[in-house]
Amino acid sequence: MKVILFCQNAYAFGILAPIRDVLQEQGHDFLWYISGKLLENFPYKNEDYTVSTLDLQLYKSDAIFVPGNEVPYYIRGLKVQVFHGLAGEKKGHFRIRHYFDLYLTQGPYFTDKFNELKKRHKNFDVIETGWPKLDVYSTEKNRYDFEKKAILQQYNTDKIVLYAPTFSPSLTSAPYLVQEIKNLAETTGYVILIKFHDLMDPKWIKAYKRLSNEIQNVLFKEDKNIIKSLIQADILVSDTSSVIYEFILLNKPVISFKNIADKVLWDNSKSYTGLTEKVLDNFHFDPHAAERAYINMQFHPYQDGKSALRMVNAVKEYIEIHGVPVERKLSLARRLKINSMFGKPTKNPFVGEKTNKISAILITYNEDIHINAVLENIKFADEIIVVDSFSTDGTIEKIKEHPNVKLIQRPFLNYTDQKSYALEQATNDWVLFLDADERVPDRLRNEILETVNSSKPTADAYYFYRTFMFKNKVLRFSGWQSDKNYRLFKKSKVHFTQDRIVHETLVVNGESDVLKNKLVHYSYKNYEDYKGKMIKYGQMKAIEEHKKDYAPNFYHFVFRPFYKFFNHYILRFGILDGKKGIIICYLNALGVYSRYKELKRLRNLRE
């Protein structure tokens, strides 16, 4: 059986790892899918993984285990919902989005409700298995006892309190409990563990980190898996978070604030006050022990640590009976939503013989935020070469984590010189030359492979149109709508002109063409970063023009920047990009002004 472990958020790692263990034990093949935002923190990089849905199409899986709410309809395989929590009262937990063929439920409470929905929709099945994330309660329940004992001795106390609120802005208690947490820590001396969801508002992360710096026995936990903290804690403080049910299944008391469940079977406060008193009462009297027993029976009655095993076996047996679905039938609206989240399916994925190899080349300097993503993105190439100008921000260390990448460090003179040198290092004739802030989408990757391996390529060099990203949003106009550059070409047919030191020019001794699909360009990180780029490019352009003995005057300082702004903002429709358009067009004009300011400075030095 071939299985995809599908991760949209970091919480999926702890849910899917037990399933991965069973797959390994039974000898099945598996492939992790992780969204791009998870790449830096993915804990299993020694296993097969991808960030590409094209790879998922090519993998031809039999089953896809999904702890999230969405999965691409066009990926082959039984689409299996394994859930990301136990909070049945949360909006959307029982919403049928029609993405899944099979729901593997945690306990009778969930099974009954999904069976009712099955009768109505008639397009999925339900099997109760238990939840794999809780298998660890059986295997590791006593694993952290020694460490817990050491923590209690260090802080001279006998209790650990865990504060783990939801991130949801309308439900979270984080804005209201800072002082209450502080009072609890100071009054009782208990160790307070603070564990936030990955999506918590950074403002509250900062506030609670500040609190942990001020008070010794408040510890802010940044590890990704909350299981360790759940096992070590003696009581949980939360609000409307599914972690409440995970904790209750350890048979320990819970205090929540303004929980929205229809039936709250633990200590729930209607106001954000009295935390210390509630903690002490629950430790001394434990008034909700009977309710916890009911929750254990209804929500997750499995204590054997074999929920992941039941899931894998259930899927195998289901496929034996029903076969493997090729894709999930969805409404147009649902298909469009999936396409916007994961990209459109790649039509006719290239699976032919690779008759020509590709060398992918980058030149880099301080590309820490981009380097892992771009190297992951171009690993379809047969050779990857990075020429780095002695980066100081961690770029080098990250490159060295990719064993198939050839790293060369070389001083930077100018762009033409560095790119000409890098091009010489390629051992294959076909070269894909990218910047670190560029990405090849799946459809473009497929087109590249089809083009390079065609028996009759249409050209010796290919332009790529580029989609400019303003942070993580598309900039549709502002002059970028027609932006294109040579990115794929035959090494034997090209060279860089030596009279340009910035915005280098590729000379092609042969035919040129344009590929249909666009490259994605993440050039704009923030205002200051892009401003720095424009000023730098302008100054380097000034060096070129200084050699030509250009003399700037009023026209260059006033009219040229104004026309640059007017051209991009009005004539090239930057006005339709709203605030983004104003920012980009202004900074592009600033680059022109910086060019002539630097040119004037250079001429003054010469005189």
From TrEMBL:
<dbReference type="InterPro" id="IPR007554">
    <property type="entry name" value="Glycerophosphate_synth"/>
</dbReference>
<dbReference type="InterPro" id="IPR001173">
    <property type="entry name" value="Glyco_trans_2-like"/>
</dbReference>
<comment type="similarity">
    <text>Belongs to the glycosyltransferase 2 family. WaaE/KdtX subfamily.</text>
</comment>
<dbReference type="InterPro" id="IPR029044">
    <property type="entry name" value="Nucleotide-diphossugar_trans"/>
</dbReference>
<feature type="domain" description="Glycosyltransferase 2-like">
    <location>
        <begin position="359"/>
        <end position="468"/>
    </location>
</feature>
<keyword id="KW-0808">Transferase</keyword>
<dbReference type="Pfam" id="PF04464">
    <property type="entry name" value="Glyphos_transf"/>
</dbReference>
<dbReference type="Pfam" id="PF00535">
    <property type="entry name" value="Glycos_transf_2"/>
</dbReference>
<dbReference type="GO" id="GO:0016020">
    <property type="term" value="C:membrane"/>
</dbReference>
<dbReference type="GO" id="GO:0047355">
    <property type="term" value="F:CDP-glycerol glycerophosphotransferase activity"/>
</dbReference>
<protein>
    <submittedName>
        <fullName>CDP-glycerol glycerophosphotransferase (TagB/SpsB family)</fullName>
    </submittedName>
</protein>
<dbReference type="InterPro" id="IPR043148">
    <property type="entry name" value="TagF_C"/>
</dbReference>
